Amino acid sequence: MSLVLRNLQRAIPLRRVPLRKKIEIVRNILGVQKFDLGIICVDNKNIQHINRIYREKNIPTDVLSFPFHENLKAGEIPQPDFPDDYNLGDIFLGVEYIFQQCKENEDYYDILTVTATHGLCHLLGFTHSTEAEWQKMYQKEKQVLEELSRRTGTRLQPLSRGLFWPW
C-alpha cells in the first residue's frame, strides 16, 4: 500500500526522496509494506501545537505517532477485517526540532530515518513508559536499524540509545 510523505514546513530544506527510500525499506523489514502510512513533516510551531493538544506538553518535540490500530501489543502486526483498515496511522516529524538537535557529525537524513523508525515502532504498539517496555522498543529499533544499515551501507543507532524516556 502507499506511503504518503508530506512536507508541510519551510523552516528546513527537505528532500523527500532519500527519506522515502529508507522508510520503504524499514516498512519492508517490519513486514508492514501492505499497510498505508502517513509521514508529515512539520516545523517547531506546528509540532508544539500538536504536542500541546494531544500530550498536554507545550514544547516542540521530534516525533508524534497516531496509530490507526489502538491497543496493539508491542510488535503486533494488525490483522484488518476490511481493506480500508490496512492503515498503520500517521507520524508527525518535527523536522526543525530534529535539525536543531543534530550533532555536527550526524547526518540529518539518517536522524530523520531513525526518528521515523521510532515513530513507526509506536504505531506497532511499542511504548517506553516503563523500563521493560523501553527495553523491548529499543531492541526492536536496534534490530530494524541494523538490518537497514546492512542494506544501505549506513550505521544507524536507535533514537533511544542509552536513554529511558518515561513519557
TrEMBL record:
Q: What Gene Ontology biological process does one annotation of this record name? A: rRNA processing
What Gene3D superfamilies does the database record attribute to this sequence? Answer: Metalloproteases ('zincins'), catalytic domain
Q: What's an example of a GO molecular-function annotation for this chain? A: endonuclease activity
Keywords (alphabetical) are:
Endonuclease, Hydrolase, Metal-binding, Nuclease, Zinc
One Pfam family in the UniProt entry = YbeY
**InterPro entries this protein is in?**
MetalPrtase_cat_dom_sf_prd (IPR023091), YbeY (IPR002036), YbeY_CS (IPR020549)
Which cofactor names does the annotation list? Zn(2+)
Q: What does this protein do?
A: Single strand-specific metallo-endoribonuclease involved in rRNA maturation.
- Provide the protein name: Endoribonuclease YbeY
Taxonomic lineage: Eukaryota, Metazoa, Chordata, Craniata, Vertebrata
Q: Which gene encodes it?
A: YBEY
